[in-house]
Every structure is written in C-alpha cells, then in structure tokens.
Amino acid sequence: TQGQVITCKAAVAYEPNKPLVIEDVQVAPPQAGEVRIKILFTALCHTDAYTWSGKDPEGLFPCILGHEAAGIVESVGEGVTEVQPGDHVIPCYQAECRECKFCKSGKTNLCGKVRTATGAGVMMNDRKSRFSINGKPIYHFMGTSTFSQYTVVHDVSVAKIDPQAPLDKVCLLGCGVPTGLGAVWNTAKVETGAIVAIFGLGTVGLAVAEGAKSAGASRIIGVDIDSKKFDNFGVTEFVNPKDYDKPIQQVLVDLTDGGVDYSFECIGNVSVMRAALECCHKGWGTSVIIGVAASGQEISTRPFQLVTGRVWKGTAFGGFKSRSQVPWLVDKYMMKEIKIDEYITHNLTLGDINKAFDLMHEGGCLRCVLKM
Ligand code: NAD
Ligand code: AHE
Ligand code: ZN
C-alpha cells in the first residue's frame, strides 16, 4: 500500500450535529514529514462533540473528527526518521517539534510548528487535505482525524510507544487521562496535604482526582450535577450543586475553612469557571481551566479576586510534551502506576459511532472505545 491511495472506512461529519456518516474515504500517501497510520482503536472525547456541535470557531465541515487513538504506522513520507512502518503509535493533537520558539522555551508544551495547518484542517506542506471522497476534499481535525481506519498526521505529532502496550487501552493516553493527570502534576503542581476541588467528573475530572491522590492531596472534593458515583479515582467528598441554595463557591468556601488550595474546571462552562476561581483560598488558591468553552463565551470575575492572591491558569494536554512524554505515560500504565481501564465504560465499533456519541451525553459513560 506504500505510496498508494488507500480506500477505507471513516466517520464523516458533514454538518454540525447531523449524524456522522460512515463513508469509503480515499487517504492519500504521506508527503514529506508526514506519517500514515492504521488506526486500530479510537475513543471519543467531549471535545469531538464540541466541534461537531458547531460551537468551535475552528470547526470545519465536512471533516473527520477524533483525537484519542492508537494505531500502527503504515508508511512514512520523505525525511521521516523517528518512526517506521510497523511502529505502534499514538497520534498527538498537541505536536512537539523540539525546534520552535515554544518547544525551546522550556515554559510550555504548546508547539508552533504545525498549529496553523491543524487549525485549518489541512497538512502543512501544501495546505491541502489527504482525505477525499470521489475527489472532494474532507478536512482534517486537530491534526489527528482518528475516526478513520487510516489517517495522515505530521511526524511531529506521532508518539512511538511500547509495542507490548494494549492499543485498545492506551488510546486514552491521546487526550483525556494525560490532560487530567498533567493539570495536577505539571500545571498546578499540587503538593502533599493540599485541598483540591474538581468541577465536572468526566474522564478529565476523574483523572484530575487520580493525579491529586497520587500527589498526596488531603481532600479531593468532586463537584458534579450528576450524582453518579465513580469510586477509586481518589474523590474523597462529593458535592452536588443542586443540593444547595447558596452559590457553589460559597458552599466550598464554607466546607474548607476559607477555600481550596487548587480547583480544576473540567466542564467548559464559563460560570462554573468563575465559581472554580472564587472557591479558591485567599492569598494563594490556584484555579486551572481545562474545559473548552463555546465560541463567544467569556470568563469574568471581580479583579479583586486576583488582587487578593488567587491565580487563574489554563492547561492544554495537561502541560505534557506529547512525543516525549506519551511513551513515558504508556510505560507508567504498563507498570500499573496509572489507571486506564477504569475509564473505559463502553466498547463499540466504528459503525456504532453515533450511538457512542449518544452514550457520551448519558450519565454512566466515561470513555467509549471504538474498534476500527
Ligand atoms: P465529560 O462530558 O465526560 O465530563 C463533563 C462532566 O461535567 C460531566 O460529568 C457532567 O455531568 C459535568 N457537568 C456538566 N455541567 C456541570 C455543572 N454545571 N456543574 C458541575 N458539573 C457539571 O467531558 P470530558 O471528556 O471529561 O471533558 C471535560 C472538558 O474538558 C470538556 O470541555 C473538554 O472539551 C475539555 N478538554 C480539555 C482538554 C485540554 O487540553 N484543555 C483536554 C480534554 C478535554
Ligand atoms: N478550537 C477550539 C479550542 C479547543 C481547545 O482549546 N483545545 C484544547 C484541547 S481539547 C482536547 O480535548 C487545546 O489543547 N488547545 C490548545 C490548542 O492549541 O488548540 C476553540 O475554541 O477555538
Ligand atoms: Zn480530547
């Protein structure tokens, strides 16, 4: 198949919110600096639903969504040296080129090399898509487009992993689990004894809980409007805002003698982001925004909240350097130092992808993994 167009199945989003359509898609061979990957398993993340909803200013249609997956390299383009056909890999929506201003800064995991192309749904080389249906181009998404049996990504967006690792599990290391763990370990740097509040107990929020537990937090307060109980991720107390008349920030301040040391917003709701900041302790409390909010939404608070020492931060992919650290996270999973299996509540096939999105919006679903 090397050098040839591959025709395979992919789920195409033609229009916002219209059911995805399983189509025969043509996938062009990788050009210089590109890698074609046979995707074996992909999970669904809330961000896929967000872009599909039409609320993402970078959303383009028709496109192939998906960014939490694992697969095997099928072929590589000219000049690609770090992976070869047969390598087991995780596509990384957050690239790491190790050469750009961002990568060299030592201050961020964001990479500038291919971001303009991935935001425009095309490849960097020729600003064109490698996906088409009968000659009509279909946009890429987040530089990954994993809802396809084959995808083409930039070489700076591929993490080569232990070939022994089960791809139906480690696919989750493409987004949600690292985001939550890294928000605690890299962005907030939660210390032993800290009091933590987590708004939104989906996969990202529960991975925050897992990270906070491993960091030695003394209290991990989970806040969700859905009183589902997920044990063993580390949440020590559960608060449902619907059980109270007073604002949730006040509930938390009262519960914690003045506020929490760290809070994490894992929903994408700007009023909850405000509550998450305002439940932080005066003088030092830090709030980390993880959730992705719709186009046009803005955050606000009284500046006095910051003047009096609270800190507002955000994180993308938990601050992890993707190509360098995803393989390390895979190794940690293999050594049973981090969980993955516990986040997988459903397993379906690509053909059932619309059902998988329905499940996401129901309680009781964390991650649904699709076999391609
Ligand atoms: P999810 O839908 O599985 O979880 C969200 C949770 O929030 C649900 O349990 C829901 O019941 C709860 N919730 C909704 N409204 C609430 C409210 N008003 N108060 C309290 N709880 C509420 O989503 P997920 O896949 O865990 O992703 C969470 C968010 O993080 C999404 O916005 C996603 O786009 C974003 N995300 C960001 C990054 C990043 O790098 N910054 C990475 C992954 C996901
Ligand atoms: N296109 C959206 C932004 C979406 C966003 O913030 N994405 C997160 C990852 S979410 C993964 O589930 C991210 O990493 N952002 C950094 C980046 O470079 O995109 C919008 O609203 O414009
Ligand atoms: Zn995601």
UniProtKB/TrEMBL annotation:
Gene3D superfamilies: Medium-chain alcohol dehydrogenases, catalytic domain, NAD(P)-binding Rossmann-like Domain
Primary localization: cytoplasm
Catalysed reaction equations from the record: a secondary alcohol + NAD(+) = a ketone + NADH + H(+); S-(hydroxymethyl)glutathione + NADP(+) = S-formylglutathione + NADPH + H(+); a primary alcohol + NAD(+) = an aldehyde + NADH + H(+); S-(hydroxymethyl)glutathione + NAD(+) = S-formylglutathione + NADH + H(+)
Domain annotation Alcohol dehydrogenase-like N-terminal: ranges: 32-161
A Gene Ontology BP annotation from the UniProt entry: formaldehyde catabolic process
Listed Pfam families: ADH_N, ADH_zinc_N
Cofactor(s), by name: Zn(2+)
Stretches of the chain forming a coiled coil according to its record: none
Any GO CC annotation of this UniProt entry: cytosol
Domain of life: Eukaryota
Keywords: Cytoplasm, Metal-binding, NAD, Oxidoreductase, Zinc
Domain (Alcohol dehydrogenase-like C-terminal): residue spans on this chain: 204-328
GO molecular function, one term: alcohol dehydrogenase (NAD+) activity
Enzyme Commission number: 1.1.1.284
Subcellular location: Cytoplasm
Subunit structure: Homodimer.
PANTHER family: ALCOHOL DEHYDROGENASE, ALCOHOL DEHYDROGENASE CLASS-3
Similarity comment text for this entry: Belongs to the zinc-containing alcohol dehydrogenase family. Class-III subfamily.
Name of this chain's protein: S-(hydroxymethyl)glutathione dehydrogenase
